[in-house]
Write a structure and sequence with these properties.
There is one protein chain. This protein has 378 residues and is α/β, with parallel strands linked by helices. Helices cover 44% and strands 19% of the residues. Helix 7 runs antiparallel to helix 10 (322-337). Mean pLDDT is 81; it is low at 275-279 and 361-378.
Length: 378
């Protein structure tokens, strides 16, 4: 997205929530955020928790957005919006949250519609869905599907989003319009969309999956060769570890004797009269502090136990065996290289239309799916 497209998207996003534009300039604009927008992109969770809990009046947040880094307004605290900005990602998330599904009605003949004709016009229900089919392995390729399903008569068209952008749509049903009944359920429409996805995958070249499995086989061969070489070297390492263990055993046998002698000296030694153990218990805490004593000594003298530190049990730690490591590496390679297909729902809506979209075959629409879909946002 270019900077001009970023600004147009942000303006459309704010206009959807009826945000008040305080000042508009070719390089920036200042906006007073509504409640929904403030909660999504205002970064004030503690403020909103306090306002909702105490039932206080809302103080709107005013922000200034610039779209050119060299055109910052003087005397205003502004924020540069671009495609990779954190605030822009919040706007995208808010758009996906509130606009993943819409309900729109077609309006013909400008604002008056068919008021001058005094004739009612039927609106046919259509289910529009934008899907993303991802072909995944160590590489990735996405296929976008813009499907439209007629819920009054079973019919499906492709590239439905481009047709919607050529219409005049409104969120409220216009005067002198009425909607037709839906004879196709949503579940049946989803089954039709699933069949279209399967048909699209059947027409795709499956060479990418075969190449991915070939790369997976090569990586598995390299992994097996590595662990076979490791297994041949393991007897030499075990012999070296055995010699090292014998030396550590001899050193460990000498340590208990030295430790026992140190413990006996500690038992027979007398405590230091000047140490913290000789602190006499005062009558009160204030008198103890007046005498110059430490608070920590007072707490110890009054039976306050210190918090014990967490001990790490090294005996429970177990080193992975070569077989376990090899299996874990195999699972990682299978997850990375094994070809798989994922289908995700981008957005969609229920559209009541008086115009009829052109019927396009899937083979013709296939070539259009690979075209850039910039600006095609419901």
């Amino acid at each position: 997205m270019q900077q001009q497209q970023v600004r147009q998207f942000v303006e459309r996003y704010l206009a959807t929530f009826s945000a008040h534009i305080v000042e508009s300039h070719p390089d920036y604009f200042t906006v007073k955020l509504p409640v929904e927008v403030d909660k999504d992109i205002g970064n004030r969770p503690f403020y909103w928790s306090w306002v909702d809990k105490m039932n206080l009046a809302y103080q709107p947040l005013i922000l200034t957005f610039t779209f050119h880094p060299d055109c910052t307004p003087e005397g205003l605290r502004s924020e540069h919006l671009h495609l990779g900005a954190a605030r822009m990602q919040q706007i995208f998330s808010s758009t996906k949250k509130h606009g993943s599904f819409v309900c729109m009605y077609e309006q013909q003949g400008g604002l008056l519609g068919n008021a001058g004709k005094r004739r009612s016009t039927p609106l046919v229900p259509w289910l529009g869905m934008n899907l993303k089919v991802s072909l995944l392995c160590d590489k990735r390729r996405d296929i976008l599907l813009y499907l439209g399903i007629n819920l009054h008569q079973p019919r499906m068209v492709t590239d439905f989003t481009s047709f919607l952008f050529s219409l005049s749509l409104t969120p409220a049903i216009p005067d002198y319009y009425y909607t037709l009944d839906r004879k196709v359920t949503i579940q049946e429409a989803l089954q039709m969309a699933q069949q279209e996805v399967e048909h699209t995958l059947e027409q795709e070249d499956q060479q990418w999956a075969e190449e991915a499995r070939t790369r997976l086989s090569e990586e598995m061969s390299i992994l097996e060769a590595y662990y076979e070489e490791l297994a041949r070297r393991e007897p030499q390492d075990e012999q070296a570890n055995a010699n090292k263990t014998e030396d550590e055993t001899d050193d460990a046998a000498e340590q208990p004797e030295a430790q026992s002698s140190l413990e006996q000296e500690a038992l027979h030694s007398e405590p230091d009269p000047t140490g913290p153990a000789s602190v006499e218990q005062p009558i009160s805490f204030d008198e103890y502090r007046a005498s110059g004593g430490r608070i920590l000594d007072f707490l110890r003298a009054n039976g306050i136990q210190t918090t014990s530190r967490e001990e790490i049990n090294q005996a429970e730690w177990k080193k992975s065996t070569p077989d376990e490591e090899r299996q874990r590496r195999k699972d990682e390679l299978a997850w990375q290289y094994e070809p798989r297909i994922e289908v995700s729902f981008i957005n969609g809506g229920l559209f009541y239309l008086s115009s009829s979209p052109p019927l396009m075959r899937s083979s013709k629409a296939k070539s259009m799916r690979h075209l850039p879909a910039s600006g095609r946002i419901l």
